[in-house]
Amino acid sequence: MSFRLLVFLCLVIVARCGNTLSIERRSNHFVKLPVVHSTNRQVFAKVYQDKRAIATVPLAKRADVAYYAKLNIGTPPQPVFVQLDTGSFELWVNPNCTTLRGSSDVRFCEAIGHYDPSSSSSSIELTTTKTLRYGIGSATVQYVVDSVGLAGTDTLLQEVQFGVALDTVDEFSGILGIGHGENLTIRYKNLIDQLADQGATSTKAFSLALGSKSEQEGVIIFGGLDTSKFSGTLQTQPIIPARDSPDGVPRYWINMQSLSITPPSGETKRYPNTSMAVFLDSGATLTLLPTRLANAIAADFGAEATDSNGFYPVDCKFNDQPGTLDFAFVGVIIRVPYREVVREIQTTFGIQCYLGISPSEDFVLLGDTMLRSAYAVFDQTNNAIHIAQYSNCGSNEKEITAKMTLGSTKGDCEAPDFEAGNANSDPLSLDNGTGVGSNDSTDADSSASTFDILGPYQRLTIWATLFGDQDDYSSPYMSTAHANDRQTRAI
């Protein structure tokens, strides 16, 4: 065989098998899945075709600000994006897009994909239905059992139970709840349970790096971690038992020691009485703090009060200043750059900026405006969360084993340069010659589009309604994407 013919055959094979070659094969018991923000124009390109429609959506009428993971459900696989939520416990798909207001809302809902059980040869439709209630709206689902693959990997879980929506109210996407599962909040195995039960992971633990605003995506590793996504050493924070937690539900509650601000002057100011239980919630865009504390922080950003929509308007200049908000836990301080806290959006009146913090008297919730600056391992096996400062210096993935001491695991990265203007949590996005971070400007086409801010208030300020009782594993509190899962049936 001639050399030219050999080269030609190799090129043909690569071309035909390109998708196969991109599949990540696992040699260990962990599974990596990209986490994509709703502002990522490459993934959700159809959503941004009509910029005017996006720009003119009323401020308090959007609820689709979130991070998404892609699943392949059924046989043959049907791709569906679901909101990644550490605050709920169940997977469901197929929101009702026809009842949404605004063309951009409908386009986003339609862009996430749709699962049809009748088109899957491996689906089993159950007769059980249930209503999951959220901060705004709800999802009435019928349970289905089918195979679920994690996109981009060779992981395929068999006979996974999840919900298929019969109807939804004010829901823009399905939700992948990755909180506690079987016999704790629900009566069947959720995704975390199934990953361990079917041998994809050897532990009920996963690591989460949401990535900065400029990166627009992060990574979740079920059963593993990436030491090139944080600096310093992971510090172990015990999960507060449900009986001692503010809402009495098994969630990712830990104790925060204090909260401070370090302005550009470098003189750190500690806010008084900030030792409290906090809840880590990837399904919430905003961070919820007690009103007195939220007002104090807002005042340091020049905001006297919230506006009519419940947001603190701030000057966009803070996006270019090197200050930080400092969340202290045992053994570690997570420093959140101003630019990660300040939310800028395009409106018909131009770019407007808001503080990514909202007042609440119910309980403290650390949402994406804080979590983007943290690297966290959610460890159900050992009832702990191991956290460190987020910093992106590449990729170095490792399996989480029973013998591993997570609380002494060191990161590969240098700490971010918080003293620099445009301080960021990801050194790679600042200037690496690849164009990464180019979407992080403040022009009308920046990554901080309407999706970055519109709507969280609508979900995050409704906390008063009680759903069910403790026998239903329900709670008087609701987060952005929570199924505070009113259990109407035992499965």
How many H/I helices?
9
Biggest sheet, strands in spatial order? 2-3-8-4-7-6
Number of domains: 2
Q: Spans with pLDDT under 50 lasting ≥5 residues? A: 2-25, 53-64, 425-491
CATH H-level superfamily of the largest domain:
Acid Proteases
Q: What is the 3D form?
A: globular
Strand residue content: 25-35%
Task: Describe this entry's structure for a reader.
This protein is mainly β and 491 residues long. The chain folds into 2 domains: 30-207 and 464-468, Cathepsin D, subunit A, domain 1 (Beta Barrel), CATH 2.40.70; 227-457, Cathepsin D, subunit A, domain 1, CATH 2.40.70.10. The protein contains 9 helices and 27 strands. The chain has helices at 3-16, 18-21, 51-55, 103-111, 191-197, 291-300, 338-341, 368-371, 456-460; strands at 31-37, 67-73, 78-85, 91-93, 124-133, 138-150, 156-169, 174-177, 205-209, 217-222, 224-226, 230-238, 253-256, 258-262, 269-270, 276-280, 287-289, 313-314, 324-329, 332-337, 342-347, 350-355, 357-359, 364-366, 374-379, 384-390, 397-399. Strands 2-3-8-4-7-6 form a 6-stranded mixed β-barrel. It has a 4-stranded antiparallel beta sheet with strand order 15-14-19-20. The longest helix is centred in the first third of the chain and has 14 residues, at 3-16. The relative contact order is 0.18. Residues 2-25, 53-64 and 425-491 have low confidence and may be disordered.
